[in-house]
Amino acid sequence: MIQLKIYNTLTRKKEDFAPLKAGQAGMYSCGPTVYKPAHIGNLRAYVFMDELRRILEYCGYRVKSVMNITDVGHLVSDGDDGEDKMNKSATETGKTPLEIASAITDRFLNDVDALNIKRPTLMPKATDNIAEMIAVVQALLDSGYAYQTDDGIYFSVEKFAGYGKLSGVKLQDQRHGARVEVNSFKRHPIDFALWKKAAPNHLQQWDSPWGKGFPGWHIECTAMSKKYLGETFDIHTGGVDHIPIHHENEIAQAECWLGHKAVNYWMHCEFMLIDGGKMSKSLGNDYTVADVTARGYTPMELRYLYLNVQYRQKLNFTWDIMDSAKSAYGKLCAQLLAHKNSPQHTEQTVLDGYKQKFEQAITDDLNVPLALGVLWTMVKEPKSADIYKLALQFDKVFALNFDKLIAPQTRQIQIPDDVRAAAELRLAARREKNWAESDRLRNEILKMGYNVKDTKDGYELTAK
Ligand code: AMP
Ligand code: ZN
After folding, report:
1. Per-residue b/e over 419-438, b at no fewer than 16 CB within 10 Å?
2. Could you give the 3-state DSSP secondary structure of residue 170?
3. Measured in angstroms, how far is the CA atom of residue 157 from the centroid of ligand 2?
């Protein structure tokens, strides 16, 4: 077993990972809310989850990874305000919540597979676990931690002395703070809904001891993590946006329900920004994997880009950076291919040195960028098949398809016929030294979304 250090948001320290059961690790990750396709920011959180799992496995652990599918209860505000995202999307599109959830989940799984994210061991749906959620809510009511209002069942944050320990939020500040509006039916402004009573036209509703309704988002994760991983489990992951509301609330309700700590390590992935700002639908910059591949990049080039920034640092996405990732990944693959085809060998001590540095990097709170740096230094060694074999071991963590290397000339993307035809015309114009026509055609090709580069034997087309 290799010793791993991870940063625990709860203690604000890097800690040695000590599992509950020797040789095993249980992890729960908050999954997608399946009302619209995941954008590349969401997918950063899942690539992080995947890196964590792969590194645990590299270190020798048998990992049980659970990720829920949120198909009910996530309100527009992350708190208790606004419409349910599933209900809103269904009303707007005229589809049923089930149709939307199923189509979006399929698309999500396609992205997961394309990015080499290992599918979690279990992916329970919230709507398949309503009875379990009702049982937790009932237990919290019975023990006095929750109360009923006209609108639903609420958790009383003042009943839990540890409220705020994850994010540092202080209850007094929240009561008097100008940011939080005081809802008349809540005892404290940040009390949160465990169960919401449903209006007759609400599309997703279930019978409960409190009438027809639907679960709050936070209770889903508590009910499902306990059901699939046990009363206490090792690691809970999510994006940093979950720290102050969703995970703070999970801790409160779980510890009050169970009477003890439920999670040993909390790990959070920083945000991906776009051009230095927030990704948003209104700005049209909430890119999906499909948007990225439509511009001629491969999912592996996107994964390479993710791996270049440690998960606790913000990642600023730009198309220029995507270009750099494409070019660097291509160069790395070309180097590895040359090693693969070499008949030479490398001394074992040299290989051991790289392996040790690689392991030091990944076990230092998942420093994958540093581990990639080790690989880059390693590929500059004299060409040898041993280097390639060691890179394949590293690729258990990187998951960058080093076992599927193909020669660069066959790594061509599909070029549309009209673009290819314009490039051929341009080549003919160049052979006739008709530079004006050649420039005109270059601009035409650019307008069609492609760059054309002159080469010794003709030209090379790449997506812009
Ligand atoms: P959601 O489907 O909105 O519940 O989000 C799914 C996951 O993506 C959660 O873990 C969020 O914390 C995470 N997330 C959302 N936006 C971003 C972003 N821009 N960068 C990184 N992670 C994000
Ligand atoms: Zn969650």
Report:
1. beebbebbeebbeeeeeeeb
2. coil
3. 18
For position 177, what pLDDT does the model report? 45
Ligand 2 mean position, distance from CA 316 (Å): 25
Please state, in angstroms and rounded to a whole number, the distance separating the CA atoms of residues 463 and 448: 9
Residues 6+ apart with CB under 8 A from 141: 147, 148, 153
Q: Give residues with Cβ within 8 angstroms of 330, minimum separation 6.
A: 408, 411
The answer, yes or no, to whether residue 67 has pLDDT greater than 50, is yes
| Inter-helix orientation angle 40-58/348-362, to 10° | 130
Burial code (b: 16+ CB inside 10 Å, e: under 16) for 320-329 equals: eebbebbebb
Ligand 1 neighbours, Cβ below 6 Å, are 30, 32-33, 41-42, 44-45, 238-239, 241-242, 269, 271-272, 279
First-to-last CA distance in the chain?
A: 46
Mutate to test the pocket of ligand 1, among 9, 39, 40, 42 (most ligand atoms within 8 A of CB): 42
CA 138, 140, 144, 145 torsion-angle sign: negative
Distance CA 29, CA 225 (A): 9
Q: What is the mean pLDDT of the chain?
A: 92
- Is 405 in contact with 369 (CB distance < 8 Å)? no
The residue nearest atom 2 of ligand 1, judged by CA position, is 32
The per-residue pLDDT for range 168-216, each reduced to its tens digit, is: 988 877 765 444 455 568 899 899 999 999 989 888 899 999 999 999 9
| Of the listed ranges 3-12, 136-145, 276-285, 421-430, the one predicted with least confidence | 276-285
Atom of ligand 1 nearest to the CA of 34: 2
The 3-class SS string of 194-213 reads EEEECCCCCCCCECCCCCCE
Residue 243 has pLDDT above 80, yes or no: yes
Average pLDDT in the 7-35 region? 97
Is the per-residue pLDDT at 400 higher than 90? yes
- For 162, phi then psi, to 5°, come to -85, 10
- The band of 81, judged by pLDDT with boundaries at 50, 70 and 90, is confident
- pLDDT surpassing 80 at residue 410: no
